[in-house]
Specification:
With 349 residues, the protein is an alpha/beta fold. It has two domains: 228 residues, Alpha-Beta Barrel (TIM Barrel), CATH 3.20.20.70; 66 residues, Antifreeze-like/N-acetylneuraminic acid synthase C-terminal domain (Type Iii Antifreeze Protein Isoform Hplc 12, Alpha-Beta Complex), CATH 3.90.1210. The chain is built from eleven helices and twelve strands. The longest helix is centred in the last third of the chain and has 18 residues.
């Protein structure tokens, strides 16, 4: 399966996982905080930082009727109106350029998730290298068409999507000119529990849609992301905050700098461990062969003596014959005097 270039970095199984730090609304409406998030993200070793591009008015209506209020006792957003949430979380559009410029200066890719067609036009004016489609917008085929026409790579989260919905989205993207699609397994609950992530879907999704696949991870910790790499994920997205204690709309399920640094390191180790199907010793193991058991003379014996359980043993190191020949050698005469500690070879018989 062909790799996809995001900026100058190729995303495929031959390269370490591409890690995206998602800023979301964790800047708490401070550009200074947003730029600090970029700086700390770059220090962790991630490959990209992602924003979300919308305004409260393009997301919802400023109403307080019941259907526009979040009712979820387990959610950090319980009792907030949708408009209030997006007002708190959105990234002012005039911040995008300085944030992307700072990303470039620090050597990481800056891009965003557009939530409507005006956001795509705006991001095109900033010449972003790729686009992310959020799970909740992945069935908005008008938006998919708009992004696809830019001919830039499209990363699509698939939270809540049926196979049929993913197929419709992927076919729409490809038919409108987007040849480079990456699908992310995603669970659209915040935070997600490992039990609900079902990451064995990742290789199935890769084979079904013949594209690069990854994980948009809303769980706490690194276990799910590391396991996803073993299943074929080539891209991992994780929400990022400077400090959960400082709060922020997504802070409770976001990684802090040291955690994100460890995520980059551990997913790289998981990728390095995959290798190829291989049996037998590797080059690194060759020296270890000497510590296998092998057959040795374990008592001094004279020429003409018979090998017995008392004078023949399977011990370490491994310079004698393999232990599998033990039963064959028992009862055989030796043709010379042999000291205790002599490795057994065929020419002593």
């Amino acid at each position: 399966m062909e790799g996809i270039k995001l900026g100058e970095i190729k995303v495929d199984r031959n390269n370490q996982p591409f890690i995206i730090a998602e800023m979301s609304g964790n800047h708490n409406q401070s550009l200074e905080q947003a730029l600090k998030i970029v700086e700390k993200a770059a220090e962790t070793g991630v490959h990209a930082l992602k924003l979300q591009t919308y305004t409260p008015d393009t997301m919802t209506l400023n109403l307080n009727t019941d259907e526009f209020i979040i009712r979820d006792l387990k959610s950090d957003w319980h009792n907030q109106s949708l408009f209030e949430l997006y007002q708190e979380a959105y990234t002012p559009w005039e911040w995008h350029q300085p944030i992307f410029e700072y990303c470039k200066k620090l050597g990481i890719i800056g891009f965003s998730t557009p939530f409507d067609e005006t956001a795509v036009d705006f991001l095109e004016s900033l010449n972003v290298p790729c686009y992310k489609i959020a799970s909740f917008e992945s069935t908005d085929l008008s938006l998919i068409k708009k992004v696809a026409k830019t001919k830039k790579p499209m990363i699509i989260s698939t939270g809540m999507c049926t196979v049929a919905e993913i197929e419709e989205t992927v076919n729409t993207a490809r038919s409108e000119g987007c040849e480079e699609v990456i699908l992310l397994k995603c669970t659209s609950s915040y935070p997600s529990s490992p039990e609900n992530t079902n990451i064995v879907t990742i290789p199935h999704m890769r084979d079904l849609f013949q594209c690069q696949v990854g994980l948009s991870d809303h769980t706490i910790g690194h276990g799910v992301a590391v396991a996803s790499v073993a299943l074929g994920a080539t891209i991992i997205e994780k929400h990022f905050t400077l400090s959960r204690a400082e709060g922020g709309v997504d802070a409770s399920f976001s990684a802090e700098p040291e955690e994100l640094k460890n995520l980059v390191m551990e997913t790289k180790r998981a990728w390095q461990s995959l290798g190829n199907i291989h049996y037998g010793s590797t080059k690194a193991e060759e020296k270890s062969k000497q510590y296998r058991r092998s057959l040795y003379i374990i008592q001094d014996i004279k020429a003409g003596d018979i090998l017995t359980e008392e004078n023949l043993g399977a011990i370490r190191p491994g310079y004698g014959l393999p232990p599998k020949y033990y039963d064959i050698l028992i009862g055989k005469k030796v043709n010379s005097d042999l000291n205790k500690g002599t490795p057994v070879t065929w020419d002593i018989i």
